[in-house]
Design goal:
The protein is an alpha+beta fold. The chain has 3 helices and 2 strands. A two-stranded parallel ribbon has the order 1-2. The radius of gyration is 15 Å and the shape is globular.
Length: 95
């Protein structure tokens, strides 16, 4: 299978950052274009989401569509935020 060329989706500067990601036109286009297994790259966390519920809603859709998410700023740059753990994490607190 041949890799597809990357596609870039950029919101217009006037698009409100307070708008829910799933309501943004370009994010909708991205979801329509993406295929299972495709990576979604975001330059900064706050370019996509502004709060916990936005994150949870967005991750739910990405999981549903089997897309991976990479955010290229700060501590998030080394993580796949859509990866599901293979086992339950060990408890850090004694019973």
């Amino acid at each position: 299978m041949r890799d597809r060329a990357p596609v870039v989706f950029e919101e217009a500067p006037g698009t409100s950052s307070l708008l829910h990601p799933l309501q943004r036109p370009k994010f909708g286009e991205l979801l329509t274009c993406a295929r299972p297994g495709d990576p979604v790259h975001i330059s900064e966390m706050f370019c996509l989401v502004r709060g916990n519920q936005h994150i949870l809603d967005t991750l739910e859709v990405l999981h549903r569509d089997r897309l991976t998410l990479r955010i290229h700023d700060c501590a998030f740059s080394a993580m796949d935020l859509t990866a599901r753990p293979t086992r339950a994490p060990a408890s850090c607190c004694p019973p």
